[in-house]
Amino acid sequence: MKVTVFRKEHFNAAHRLHNPAWSDEKNLEVFGKCNNYNYHGHNYDLIVEVTGEVNPETGYVIDMKVLSDLIREHVTDKFDHKNLNLDTEEFKEVIPSAENIAIVIHQLLRKHIDPLQELHITLYETERNFVRYPAR
Ligand code: NI
Predict the structure, then answer these.
(1) Domain count, the chain
(2) Does residue 125 carry a catalytic annotation?
(3) How far is ligand 1, taken at its centre, from the CA of residue 61, in Å?
(4) Whole-number pLDDT of residue 55
(5) Residues 15, 18, 42, 125: which is the catalytic one?
(6) How far is the CA of 104 from the centre of ligand 1 (A)?
(7) Tens digits of per-residue pLDDT, 10-41?
(8) What's 82's domain CATH number?
(9) What does the alpha-carbon distance between residue 88 and residue 21 come to, in Å, rounded to a whole number?
(10) Which residues surround ligand 1, an ion (CB under 5 A)?
């Protein structure tokens, strides 16, 4: 009997969407305000979903305290109040779009979650714009 458990977290970070292979004009045209030269911030809401069998000994899919600690240690401590482009190794060469941030968060957490369990990341960049990885 599989159940999905959800943990919601939050972090603030700055970014700039910019493709160095393109001209300034093309970057502005494609990325608009998110190409702002001096960066800008977002209040990211992060939802981590773990799907798996309920452990009959605990009644849990995963201990929420353990999940919360994993997210803090591997994701929010790393990205909260940071400039993603300048302060993190993960986005030195990767454009920090919501899509890429969700993929990176999945990679950071995947190795710490039981391989028999499914992991999905939902990332809200704004109230209305959010992404999910892996795709359904
Ligand atoms: Ni932005």
Answers:
(1) 1
(2) yes
(3) 34
(4) 97
(5) 125
(6) 17
(7) 999 999 999 999 999 999 999 999 999 999 99
(8) 3.30.479.10
(9) 21
(10) 34
- Domain holding 109, by residue range, is 2-12+42-133
Strand partners, 49: 6, 120
Short-list 44, 47, 43, 45, CA closest to 7: 47
Q: In angstroms, what is the span from residue 62 Cα to ligand 1's centroid?
A: 33
Which of 34, 42, 106, 120 is catalytic? The answer is 34
3-state secondary structure 103-119: HHHHHHHHCCCCCCCEE
**18: annotated active-site residue:** no
Residue 24 lies in a domain: no
Determine whether 90 is an active site residue.
no
pLDDT of 46-92, one tens digit each? 999 999 999 999 999 999 999 999 999 999 999 999 999 999 999 99
Distance CA 96, CA 113 (A): 24
Residue 79 placed within a domain? yes
Is 28 contained in some domain?
no
